[in-house]
Amino acid sequence: MGTTQLESVPEPKYWHLKTVLSEALDSEFTVGEILPNERDLAARFGVARATLRQALEQLELEGRLQRRRGVGTTVAPPRMGVAVGTGRQVWPSTGDDAWQPVDCALAAPPAAVATALESARDQAVHIVRRSRVSHGQPVAAELLYIPSTSVPDLSAIDAPSEAARARAVLRELQRLELQGQDSAVELGSARADDARELDRLPGAPVLVVTTRFFAEGRTAALSVATYRADTCRLTFTASGGVEIHHGPQQQAS
Amino acid sequence: MGTTQLESVPEPKYWHLKTVLSEALDSEFTVGEILPNERDLAARFGVARATLRQALEQLELEGRLQRRRGVGTTVAPPRMGVAVGTGRQVWPSTGDDAWQPVDCALAAPPAAVATALESARDQAVHIVRRSRVSHGQPVAAELLYIPSTSVPDLSAIDAPSEAARARAVLRELQRLELQGQDSAVELGSARADDARELDRLPGAPVLVVTTRFFAEGRTAALSVATYRADTCRLTFTASGGVEIHHGPQQQAS
DNA sequence: AAGTGGTCTAGACCACGCA
DNA sequence: GCGTGGTCTAGACCACTTG
C-alpha cells in the first residue's frame, strides 16, 4: 500500500501556471488589455507572488506579456517582423530609413571588435551609434565600427551636429564597393545604455546581431545591433520580400 | 546637511554581483572549472541565495555559465558558431550531415503551421523530427512540416525504421526545384520535449528559427528549429564561408 | 498618496547526479 | 546518502507612474 505515485514527475507550479495563463490570454484577453496585479493574481491561484512572477517572466520572454513598473502587466501584440538580412547585400542604411543616426565618435574599439576588424588594438575607429524604430517604438540600438581606412576623406567635413557627422561617415562608407557580408545572431542581455534606448530595464533579453561588411578585401565595417527580444522577430529574407504569417504563436503543442 | 545622494540610482545588488562575477570569470577561472556552490557563494558575497541566483541566471543566459542540477555550476566555453543560412539555398539536409533524422509521422499540423503552408487545417502533413549535433553535443531540435503534395511518390516506400522513413521523405523533397527560402529568428522557451532532446530543463531559453522553403510557386516545406540559446551563436553567411572571430576565442575545444 | 512591478530576504523542501 | 541546483513561501522594502 505504498503511496501510489500516479504523477511520477510532478510539474512545477510555475510551469503549470504559465500554461493556464497562456490559454487564458488566448481566449479571454485582447491585445493591450491590462491583467490584474501580481498580488491579486497570486492570491487567485493560491501561490506566492514569486511563483506567479516566475510564470509571468516566461510569458514576457515569449513576447506574450509586457510589464511596466508603476503601470501594470498588459497583453502584448504579436511580435513584429524586423528585416535584418536581405538577399542583395547593402551597406548600412543605404535604402531604408529605418535607422536613425544618433551620434559619432572616434575612439579605440573594444578588443573583440578590433579582432574582427583585423586592426591594431590601439587604432582608433569611427563609432556611429544608431537607433532603429519600427511601428512607432524603438526596437534596436546599434554600434557601427568603421576603421578610418574605410572612410579616408573625412578631414574636410563640416559637423553641424553629431548626427550629421554620423551621416557623413556613412555617406563616405557607401563609396566603397561592398563585396559581401555575414551576420550572426545570439542571445544577450541589455547593457544599461542599450536598455535606456530600448525602453527596457537593464538585463532585459536582447538579440544581438553582429554583421561584418567586406570591401577591398578586408572587413570594412562591423555592426553590433541589439534588438528587443520580447517584441522582435528577426527576418532573413533570402529571395522575395514576403512575410511569414504567424498564428497566435509559433510554437505549437 | 540632507543625505547627499551621491548614488542617485542605486544599482541592484544582483546586477552589481553579476558584474563582479563576470570579471572574476575572465580573470580567475578557466573553461570547465566548477564554481563554489550557490550557498557558499551567497554567503561569501553576503546576499540571499535568491539574489545570487538572479546573477547566475543572467550569466547563464549570456552563455558564460552552465548549471546542472545535482552537479554544479561550471564555466562555459565560448558559444559555438552554428551555420543556419547559406548563400546558395539548399533543401534541408542536402549536403551536410549535421542533422540526424529521428522519426516521421503523418498528422494534422498546428494551426500556425497550416497558415504558413497555405494549406487546409485538416490536411495532414509529413512531420519529420530531426536533431542537430555540433562539437559532440545537441544544439537543436527541429520539426519539418512537409505537405503530402510536395512528396507525392511515397506510396511505395519501405520503412525499416522511423529514421529511414524520414530519410525517404527528405529524398523525395529534394527532387523539387528549390526556388527560394526565408528564415526568421525569435526568442522562445523550450517545450518539454525539446528540452529533453537539448539536455536542458523545460522553459530554457531557445532561439527558434522558422524557415520556409519555396518550390513550384508555393511553400513546399516549413522548418521550425529550436536552438539552445546559451551555447549557440547562429551564423548567416551570405557570401564566403568565413567565420566571425569573436573576443578571446572562436570555438570550443 | 496610492498602486504597480522590481528587488531582497531567510528560510524550507524537492529532484537529480554521483560515489 | 550526500551535495548540488531547482522550486516555493511569506513576508518586507524600494522605484516608478499616475491621479
Automatic annotation (TrEMBL), chains A, B:
<feature type="domain" description="HTH gntR-type">
    <location>
        <begin position="11"/>
        <end position="78"/>
    </location>
</feature>
<dbReference type="InterPro" id="IPR000524">
    <property type="entry name" value="Tscrpt_reg_HTH_GntR"/>
</dbReference>
<dbReference type="InterPro" id="IPR036388">
    <property type="entry name" value="WH-like_DNA-bd_sf"/>
</dbReference>
<dbReference type="InterPro" id="IPR036390">
    <property type="entry name" value="WH_DNA-bd_sf"/>
</dbReference>
<keyword id="KW-0238">DNA-binding</keyword>
<dbReference type="InterPro" id="IPR050679">
    <property type="entry name" value="Bact_HTH_transcr_reg"/>
</dbReference>
<keyword id="KW-0804">Transcription</keyword>
<dbReference type="InterPro" id="IPR028978">
    <property type="entry name" value="Chorismate_lyase_/UTRA_dom_sf"/>
</dbReference>
<keyword id="KW-0805">Transcription regulation</keyword>
<protein>
    <submittedName>
        <fullName>GntR family transcriptional regulator</fullName>
    </submittedName>
</protein>
<dbReference type="Pfam" id="PF00392">
    <property type="entry name" value="GntR"/>
</dbReference>
<dbReference type="InterPro" id="IPR011663">
    <property type="entry name" value="UTRA"/>
</dbReference>
<dbReference type="Pfam" id="PF07702">
    <property type="entry name" value="UTRA"/>
</dbReference>
